[in-house]
Amino acid sequence: MLSLVLALTGAGHSAAAAGAAGLSDKKPNDGVAAAHTMPVQGIDVSYFQGDIDWKKVAGAGVHFAYIKATEGADRFDPNFLSNWSGAGKAGIVRGAYHVMYWCSFARDQASWFTTHVPSDAGALPPVLDVEWNSYSKTCPHQIDRASAIAKMKVMLAAMEAHTGKRPIIYTDPKFHHDVLEGEFTDYQFWLRSVAAKPDVKYRGRDWAFWQFTTTGRVPGVAGAVDRNSYNGTPADWTRTVKRLQTRTVATDVEPASVSQ
Question: What is the pTM (predicted TM-score) of this model?
């Protein structure tokens, strides 16, 4: 794991420069142009991306990857294990995410996640993905705000107990407006905003990661992939990675020097 830290420490702006040539967007939006120039870039993936050449992904300047692991209490992403292994072997810092399903008991979802996701001291903090699952064929409806918060608290506590790291919350503007405004102020956030900077869509919410497009193009990935940026400098990122290698409990992402 030391070699990974040294690689990132030495990369810094040179990795960002390589990414400028290798990373792109099929449908770029001027509102998120700033995200493309941020020095620490990443992706998030699931089985929808098919087989991934992680060595090419790393060579394109991708620093981190969040990989779908579980959804609800009975769905395990069929490509999780291959993606987890591939990203790690390519030297990309990786993390796992769980998609919350509002029609399952939170305790059952927590058990499902902890059964399928390794407790890896070198991984990024786990992510709890919370959105309204309007696309779902079995549970498209919303639940009340208090119930959603209660379910999240159960899941977040279980994820932290399993990994030793305080989870990060991923969300979109609608769910944030309906449920999360003013809540979970002691957690870091990963925000979806594909047409504007996060501070335009999320009132008073600091963030660690920004998902800025769903139509990204990355060497090694066939077709579209979600692209993300980290809210900090290469030095911030290096400190984060060093902590991941040396601590096994309560590891958070290094806060940005200046909020983007």
Answer: 0.89
